[in-house]
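> call design_seq(struct)
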């Protein structure tokens, strides 16, 4: 779009260029009267070039709370925004880069009023925030929203300040010559692998830049920081959000290998090989489909695409999003790969069960033992893999410094100076009370769930018995069900029975009510868990999150697996002291149907519907923003073309107002505003879904052997959906250092132990194969219980011995760690001698 408005002898052309990343750049072309005719024109031209020079390499964005009124003073009858000149002042200060990163230069904010400069005291919120940021040497750009009621500040750090923050933050960098990782220091910068000899600077990844800039913003002024921490009144009063910004160049490269990995990217080598091919026709392009080279490479591309299905660019994810996010995707990738073997075993078992027309097959006990060994081996392999990844990212054994939560209420021994915290017995009492309440509520929920399903079964059987007295077909069905000879071949007959509405009412009422109550109970229990965790008053964010995860996951574990445990082990016999072996087959089939419903309909539909909901919400938000932007832009252009104002404006005034209008449009269309509208991303929901799926596979796959296969198919889709959600739907999360998946590793170990106990019960109470092998188990219930404990202890001993015997680190990782320690000792000796 070209905006051209002649006014006397002055023409100012403003060209708006819309980029692929939805950013807008303004290309202003000033006539000779502006560029070289007068001193005022020279100053306006210089300022316009600074205002429209968009550099996307900003790391952090600060969104301020909206004000009630539009912001912008009246100057010369034209309402302009402070951002038009605050950006210029920030750029003017930041271009004076300091050679010493430790020097903090104070910033005297100046306000431009008709090309005359005068010093002012920052009184507006965005001015005070920008003043603090620029005081420590950071670069800031102020943007005003489309309604001129909200400010957004984009912040970045110059190279000297990045190196200063990296040294203070103890960022680990890789040295040349295979010397391993070392903490960054200015005197050893030339020995680092990321050091560029030509430009004489050290390269920092996007994740490292975010950590450094965020640390500079939150450190106390005494530590050379801006002081925007949890105890800063300025942040509490005016800040709405602090979030990292996307680097669209790196995001596109990451997306091409992560989300759209199947798209073939033509390289220079492919083009050169096609052009030099002797079988290429004279009129054929390098991308022609008739090229022999193209046909030969098609199979390789298909082969590469198939192999990339189970691979992700984890290294690029770690460099862009940080270690915490990368570890989630690395664990999901490895878990999906390990599902291939139980999927093949499960498919083979399912085929055998179908041919024999019996779910209780002799291979079922072997499959249960295999799943226990598989889960324990997988967790051991993941520990070794996590250590390798952490070492390759320089985060092995490195944990972030704990930050005190602003909600942490403490007793301080003085009102001034740093607070000294100490633990009281009241905190221990709160933990005990909350733990008792959580355990009691979880047990109560499990009992209510089992009672509901038991009542449903009782009403269902009563209805069938009444119906059976009048219908011989229904009577045969009830006989099959009660004797335990009910199998998959009888299922089609159930659909042909005219059982009436009463049977289906009893059969479907409890599952429907249970499904409707789960989301409501989940919301209520999550709110209660947050309230109880806040009441416990944890000092650090990590302890707060760990206790919250334990509470919420315990509830979800119960309401997801309660029905499955009921159908597996709850007695339906008339004599509750003994379960007839003939009834175990019926319960086996019911468990298969329940688990198949949860795996196929529940998990897959939930993944697709959640993604569709987020996608529709994002599209709706974009349409609203585009409509408001076009409406405001039309009002700006209409206001400038009003003929009544032509007699009141000189030529330079018209050029100045056009510059301000174009600057407002450029600020309001910045991609940072769209990122600010997104919801924050957290791995809690994704980790919860994956670990519950891990429970489906390891707990009850003996009843539904296709569970690992459906989990594998779901994860192949979920990997790409989560990647798309992270890149395009959610806000870019703040980078965190991590050496593992955190508390989720402990949760997985607990799930593995529960899997041992559950599968041990399956061997003696779900299947009848061991009773056929050892008939004495049918009449001796005490022996059956003893055998359950014996098998459980054998499997548990195998797990513990494997943990103790298999080392956590691989041999290469141990050698690298020893080499790094040796180099650190040598450096410390040289420092002492110096």
């Amino acid at each position: 779009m070209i905006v051209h408005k002649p006014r006397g002898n002055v023409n100012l052309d403003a060209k708006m260029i819309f980029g692929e990343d939805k950013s807008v750049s303004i290309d202003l072309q000033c006539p000779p009267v502006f560029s070289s005719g007068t001193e005022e024109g020279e100053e306006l031209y210089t300022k316009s070039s600074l205002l429209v020079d968009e550099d996307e390499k900003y790391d952090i964005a600060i969104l301020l709370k909206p004000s009630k009124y539009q912001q912008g003073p009246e100057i010369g009858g034209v309402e302009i925004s402070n951002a038009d000149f605050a950006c210029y002042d920030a750029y003017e200060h930041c271009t004076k880069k300091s050679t010493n990163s430790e020097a903090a230069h104070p910033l005297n904010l100046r306000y431009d009023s008709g090309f005359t400069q005068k010093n002012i005291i920052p009184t507006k919120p965005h001015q005070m925030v920008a003043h603090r940021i620029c005081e420590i040497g950071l670069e800031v750009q102020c943007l005003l929203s489309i309604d001129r009621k909200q400010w957004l500040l984009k912040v970045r750090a110059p190279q000297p300040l990045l190196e200063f923050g990296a040294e203070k933050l103890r960022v680990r960098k890789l040295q040349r010559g295979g010397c391993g990782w070392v903490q960054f220091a200015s005197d050893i910068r030339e020995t680092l692998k990321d050091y560029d000899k030509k430009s004489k600077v050290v390269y920092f990844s996007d994740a490292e830049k975010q950590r450094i800039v965020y640390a500079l913003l939150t450190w106390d002024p005494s530590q050379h920081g801006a002081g925007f921490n949890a105890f800063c009144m300025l942040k509490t009063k005016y800040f709405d959000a602090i979030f990292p910004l996307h680097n669209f160049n790196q995001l596109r490269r990451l997306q091409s290998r992560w989300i759209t990995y199947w798209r073939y990217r033509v390289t220079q080598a492919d083009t050169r090989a096609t052009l030099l091919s002797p079988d290429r026709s004279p009129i054929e392009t390098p991308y022609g489909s008739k090229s022999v080279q193209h046909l030969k490479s098609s199979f390789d591309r298909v082969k590469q695409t198939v192999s990339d299905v189970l691979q992700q660019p984890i290294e690029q994810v770690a460099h862009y999003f940080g270690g915490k996010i990368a570890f989630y995707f690395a664990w999901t990738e490895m878990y999906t790969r390990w599902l291939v073997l139980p999927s093949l075993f499960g498919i083979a078992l399912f085929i055998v069960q179908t041919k024999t027309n019996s779910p209780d097959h002799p291979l079922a006990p072997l499959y249960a033992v295999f799943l226990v060994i598989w889960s324990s081996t997988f967790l051991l392999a993941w520990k070794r893999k996590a250590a390798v990844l952490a070492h390759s990212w320089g985060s092995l054994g490195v944990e972030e410094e704990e930050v005190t939560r602003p909600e942490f209420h403490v007793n301080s021994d003085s009102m001034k100076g740093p607070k000294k915290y100490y633990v009281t017995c009241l905190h221990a009492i709160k933990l005990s009370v909350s733990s008792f309440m959580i355990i009691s509520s979880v047990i109560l929920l499990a009992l209510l769930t089992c009672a509901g399903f038991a009542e449903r079964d009782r009403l269902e059987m009563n209805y069938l018995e009444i119906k059976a007295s009048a219908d011989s077909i229904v009577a045969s069905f009830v006989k099959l069900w009660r004797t335990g000879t009910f199998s998959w071949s009888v299922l089609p007959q159930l659909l042909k029975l005219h059982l009436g509405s009463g049977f289906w009412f009893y059969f479907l009422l409890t599952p429907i009510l249970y499904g409707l109550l789960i989301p409501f109970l989940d919301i209520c229990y999550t709110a209660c868990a947050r309230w109880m965790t806040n009441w416990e008053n944890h000092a650090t964010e990590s302890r707060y999150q760990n206790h919250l995860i334990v509470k919420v996951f315990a509830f979800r574990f119960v309401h997801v697996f309660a029905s499955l445990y009921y159908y597996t082990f709850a007695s339906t016999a008339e004599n509750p002291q003994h379960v007839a072996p003939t009834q175990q087959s019926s319960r086996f089939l019911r468990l298969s149907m329940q688990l198949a419903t949860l795996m196929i309909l529940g998990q897959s539909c939930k993944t697709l519907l959640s993604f569709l909901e987020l996608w529709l919400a994002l599209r709706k938000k974009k349409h609203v923003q585009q409509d408001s932007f076009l409406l405001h832009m039309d009002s700006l252009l209409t206001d400038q073309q009003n003929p009544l104002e032509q007699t009141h404006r000189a030529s330079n005034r018209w050029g100045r107002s056009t510059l301000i209008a174009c600057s407002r449009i450029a600020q309001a269309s910045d991609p940072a505003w769209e990122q600010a509208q997104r919801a924050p991303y957290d791995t809690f929901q994704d980790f919860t879904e994956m670990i519950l799926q891990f429970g489906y596979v390891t707990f009850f796959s003996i009843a539904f052997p296709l569970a690992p296969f459906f989990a594998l198919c779901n994860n192949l889709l979920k990997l790409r959906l989560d990647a798309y959600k992270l890149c395009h739907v959610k806000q870019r999360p703040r980078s965190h250092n991590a050496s593992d998946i955190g508390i989720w590793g402990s949760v997985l170990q607990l799930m593995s132990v529960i899997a041992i106990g559950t599968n041990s019960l399956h061997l003696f109470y779900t299947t009848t194969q061991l009773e056929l092998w050892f008939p004495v188990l049918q009449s001796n219930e005490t022996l059956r219980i003893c055998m359950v404990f014996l098998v459980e202890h054998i499997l548990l001993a195998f797990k513990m011995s494997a943990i103790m015997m298999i080392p956590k680190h691989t041999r290469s990782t141990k050698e690298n760690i020893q080499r790094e320690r040796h180099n650190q000792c040598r450096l410390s000796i040289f420092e002492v001698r110096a």
